[in-house]
Amino acid sequence: MRSLEDAVLEIEHALEPAPKAAPRLMAEYVDDVPAAARCAIRAKLGEIREGIGWVNDRFGLRRESISTRRRLSARLSLLAVELAECSARRLRGFGEVASDERNALDQIISRLEEMVNDLNRLVRGDD
Fold first, then answer.
1. Rounded to 5, what percent of the chain is helix, strand, coil?
2. Largest Cα span, the chain
3. DSSP 55-108
């Protein structure tokens, strides 16, 4: 139920006007949901939210407390694994990385992985 609720919140957030933030480098989200569809989507999300509430009430599910540190650390741990999968050797399945680019790619990927791990230690409060 928590994953469903998370998805509902994510969809609701995506339908809101984009806040002013730093521009994305790797993707651009295009707002292509027509206004008429937004109303129907919001109505359906409300129905889903009611269903979640019914299950929660009917079965006495307790509200789980989720640590922000734990949530962020889990996400950062997954990102570190994803970065480890981006080495030149592991990207061969998508095509060969030019030999003169392999070292540069591996160095920056290694540095990004190190920074993500440093950030994770900060989030966790490690010394």
1. 70, 0, 30
2. 62
3. HHHHHTPPPPP--HHHHHHHHHHHHHHHHHTTSTTGGGGG-PPPHHHHHHHHHH
The answer to whether 7 touches 51, Cβ cutoff 8 Å, is no
Alpha-carbon gap, residue 56 to 59, rounded angstroms: 6
Q: Measured between alpha carbons, how far is 38 from 93 in angstroms, rounded to an integer?
A: 39
Rounded to the nearest angstrom, the gap between the alpha carbon of residue 55 and the centroid of all alpha carbons in its chain is 26
The alpha carbon of 67 is separated from its chain's Cα centroid by a whole number of angstroms, namely 17
Which pLDDT tens digit goes with each residue over 11-51?
A: 999 998 777 777 888 888 888 999 999 999 999 999 999 99
Separation between Cα atoms, residue 108 and residue 104, nearest integer Å:
6
Say how far apart CA 45 and CA 59 lie, in whole Å: 21
For residues 52 and 7, is the Cβ–Cβ distance under 8 A? Answer: no
* Distance between CA atoms of residues 75 and 86, nearest Å: 17
pTM, entire model: 0.76
CA distance 72 to 97: 32
